Amino acid sequence: MVIKLTDPTSEFGFVGGTNPMNNVRDRLNAIVDFSLQSKTSAVITQPLAVATTDTDTAIDIPANSLIESIGILYVENVTLAATSTFDVAFGTSAAGVDLVASTNVGPNNVTILANSFASTSNGNISVAGGTALVMAVAAPLFTGTTSTSIFVSTVVGTAALASASSFRVVVNYRGL
Predict the structure, then answer these.
(1) What pLDDT, in 10s, does the model give residues 11-58?
(2) Which end of the chain has fewer CB atoms < 10 Å from its terminal CB, N or C?
């Protein structure tokens, strides 16, 4: 058996003053830059009363990013009374609907189950009779040179919800 020994410092060779491993590092960094990233809000408690509630999700999408999907993850059941409705909208300011227009995700007399998830990318309907979330026409999905905050607006209509509930907002984006 022959064991070939090499100089361990040969792996640290520099060509023209530059380490060739920098190319590998740069390629890996480029892959990470273009990979899909996700941010999730803290749990947001939904008031029971008939009202419109605007919430800053505390999700800031970095500059030069492209928003690819926005969704809602129900942490608890949302139980609607016989005449309740539950709408959600997403925007870049309080009461904004520039990302996702106000959408009736919960018609009356149903329960949206905990752990269900509806987003603009999966087309999932939160409950039978609800409407899927879709991006608004001409939505400002590219953040440009400044970061963008994401707001959620919820509307409990006609009658109060039958039970307390909470949810999280999930935003997927890609750095460009």
Answers:
(1) 556 666 677 777 777 777 777 666 779 999 999 999 989 999 999 998
(2) N
Burial grade of 88 (CB within 10 A; 0-12, 13-18, 19 or more): buried
The class that CATH gives domain 38-175 is mainly beta
CA 124 to centroid of chain Cα atoms: 15
Structure tokens at 88: 């959600």
**Secondary structure class of 11 (helix, strand, coil):** helix
66-119 pLDDT per residue, tens: 999 999 999 999 999 989 999 999 999 999 999 999 999 988 889 999 999 999
pLDDT of 156 above 90: yes
pTM: 0.79
User: Residue 27: left (phi > 0), alpha (psi -120 to 50), or beta?
Assistant: alpha
Domain boundaries, the chain: 38-175
Q: What does each C-alpha distance from 86 to 52, 79, 80, 152, 154 come to in angstroms?
A: 10, 10, 8, 13, 7
Q: What is the DSSP string of 70-119?
A: EEEEESS-EEB-TT-EEEEEEESSTT--SSEEEEEEE-TT-EEPTT-EEE
The closest alpha carbon to 118, from 68, 72, 170, belongs to 72
**Beta bridge pairs of residue 87:** 104, 155
Structural contact between residues 118 and 105, judged by C-beta atoms closer than 8 angstroms? yes
